[in-house]
Write a structure and sequence with these properties.
alpha/beta; about 90 residues; Dodecin subunit-like; five-stranded mixed beta sheet; 5 strands; 1 helix; YdgH-like_sf; about 35% strand
Length: about 90
């Protein structure tokens, strides 16, 4: 499982992608369960860390990162979005 970061990383990390999760009205009260699902989805796309960028409303969005192994790639952004519940 990927680990949650308390702040957006500035150096030493490479962006892997973004995960989004829709919560149901019943599941919205279980924030710890939602964060665990995001951690699993982040690891599923090759991430080691994630930072929740939007947690208001029915959708939670997190940017996913891994430790950088070298110089940052030019144009490296957040290309992949995985929505939980969609086929991998």
């Amino acid at each position: 499982m990927a680990e949650e970061l308390s702040t957006t990383p500035s150096e030493g990390f490479e962006a892997v992608g973004r995960v989004e999760m829709r919560s149901s009205p019943l599941g919205a009260g279980d924030i710890h369960g939602l964060i665990d699902e995001i951690a699993r989805a982040a690891a599923g796309i090759g991430g080691e860390y994630f930072f929740v960028t939007d947690s208001l409303g029915a959708t939670i969005t997190a940017d996913v990162y891994r430790r950088s192994t070298g110089r940052p790639r030019r144009g490296a952004g957040l290309p992949r979005i995985r929505r939980l519940g969609d086929p991998a």
